[in-house]
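Database export, one record per block. Field names are fixed; values are copied verbatim from the stored entry.
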Amino acid sequence: MDETYRNQLRELNELNWERFRSELRAEGAAIRAEMDKRFTALDLRFAAIDARFDGIDAKFAAVDARFAAMDPRFSAQEAWFTASEERMEAKFDAKFDAKFAQFETRMFKLMFGFWTATIVPLAALILALNGVFER
């Protein structure tokens, strides 16, 4: 390759490179413009969603205010129900304790009867076998 051909090839490559770079910059600018347009549309959609949530928050605030207004009305009833529940729980505990004490007594009687009924024949068997083995 001679020097002239090399220079022409280099100039051609530089021209192609510059053309490629300008096309690349143009394409990048187009992509940025499209992204800016889409982000703007997305921002508008998010603004609409935020407005809807603000409306929902306002409705919840109204419901909270209604509950706050109703709360004093139910405080006395809540106290009555709590006291009633405590009385019923105390009665239930007393009845349960009494029934459990009866059950416990009955269980001890049955266990005593079972062990007595088991030990007496075992003692007789031991005495009987003791006499057999001594002969």
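Remark 1: Residues 10 and 16 are 10 Å apart (CA to CA).
Remark 2: Residues 3-134 form the longest helix (132 residues).
End of record.
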